[in-house]
Amino acid sequence: MRNIQKKTEPTSLTQHRCNTNTDYDNYAEKDDLRASLVSEQRGICCYCMQRIRPDSENMKIEHWQSQDIYPQRQLEYKNLLGACRGGEGQKKDKQHCDTKKGNLDLTFNPADPSHNVEKKIHFLGDGTVESKDLQFNREINEVLNLNEGALVRYRKGVLEAFRQRLSQKELSDADIRKELPKWNGDNGQELDPFCQVVVYYLRKKIDRMASKRTSK
Questions:
Q1: Could you please report the per-residue DSSP string of 127-191?
Q2: Could you state, in order of their start, the residue ranges of all structural domains in the chain?
Q3: What is residue 87's three-state secondary structure?
Q4: In the predicted model, is pLDDT for residue 27 greater than 70?
């Protein structure tokens, strides 16, 4: 999970909301919404960070606060996110993200700047993800199931591949710092799946390098 910067909503959503007797179900231009969500999330799921594409086969439109419990927010763009299919149709223990979450609530929204989920998420070397916030940590495991086996293996594989690449080159501290904006998408490009695992690793590594310099 990483912070999402919400942008301008699709014009079709704005116009639909201005009509009478409107709701999410009778909003016909959902392809507009999918395209906007995938673009602002740079092609990755709002929760697990797998690749998503702007069509119904490759993503779901997620209501951070569910339509059933919070109908007043069903057309609110700040409440809408792009999620992967999340193991739809598989056993419950294999489902994750929106498919697992259903109508349950989450404490933090990756698209709310005040929540700053990147400060609350920690990625471990074995591929697991956790939070020091006990409530959020429970939600990571029980509501979103982000430590489902396949997701853990994917995250571990991305991190190990990156670390192996670093070990094969004689990189200076400056070279290592240059890796961070690439993985963090600072130039606005499409993000690599599970990119935040490497971003978290690089930020810790850069912090350690800075500490060594100041301690000399």
A1: S-EE-SSHHHHHIIIIIS-TT-HHHHHHHHHHHHHHHHHHHTS---HHHHHHHHHHHHTTT-PPP
A2: 11-215
A3: coil
A4: yes
How many percent of the chain have pLDDT more than 70?
99
**Looking at residue 216, what is its pLDDT?**
58
User: Would the CA dihedral through 46, 49, 55, 57 be positive or negative?
Assistant: negative
Question: Strand pairing of 80-83 and 129-130?
Answer: unpaired
- Could you tell me the CA-to-CA distances from 170 to 143, 165, 174, 203 in Å, in that order? 42, 10, 11, 19
pLDDT in tens, 49-94: 999 999 999 999 999 999 999 999 999 999 999 999 999 999 999 9
Task: Report yes or no: 32 and 10 within 8 Å, Cβ to Cβ.
Answer: yes
Query: By the 8 A CB rule, do 59 and 34 touch?
Result: yes
Tell me the two tokens of residue 114. 């005040």
Question: pTM of the entire structure?
Answer: 0.93
Q: Name the DSSP letter for residue 123.
A: E
83-113 tens-digit pLDDT: 999 999 999 999 999 999 999 999 999 999 9
Q: What is the DSSP letter of 61?
A: E
| Long-range contacts (CB closer than 8 Å, 24 or more residues apart) made by 183-190 | 185/42, 188/42, 189/42, 190/42, 190/43
